[in-house]
Write a structure and sequence with these properties.
With 196 residues, the protein is an all-alpha fold. The chain is 82% helix and 0% strand. Helix 3 runs antiparallel to helix 7 and helix 4 packs antiparallel against helix 6. The chain is flat and about 60 Å long.
Amino acid sequence: MAKILGNFHLALLIGIVLMLAAMFGLHGGLIGDGGYDWAQFMRYLHIFAGILWIGLLYYFNFVQIPTMPKVPAELKPGVSKYIAPAALFWFRWAALATVILGLLTGEMKEGGYSARALGLEETHRTIGIGMWLGIIMAANVWFVIWPNQKRALGIVPAEDSAKARSASVAMMASRTNLILSLPMLYCMVLYSHLGM
């Protein structure tokens, strides 16, 4: 069992196979006769990417940032050279995937509501606000957090003063995303489950 569960890629593959088994086992007839709602599957992928993205945002803000000052100096490179770059890889790509899959889901649903929602049309105002917050957050990830983290972590060369300044900017941008994530999630969940 340790050989299976100890291998990330194998465990992920098993999860995907089980998801497909559930999909075809529960809805195979609908898929076969063309009655399957592919927008719901797109929403599933959007939610999966969103959980990965926001889960990492919360990891950074609830765990890594508050804990780093307590980590002994000799152990900090383990985080800054290995853990943080790997987490930031998944963080930024999950952010992009979440936005793209969310916009595609909106286009597949109800005759394509993404443009109306982004324009904050009254019937789609709640989801539109959530979408705008998500887009702002994803832009923050790619254009503020990631460039500053590359300097702060030494992924790209920078002087010590620039590294310290970049670490501070990245932390403040991450905290901004933490703040924005709460109303964003509220808008997404309220619209998705209550249609409001």
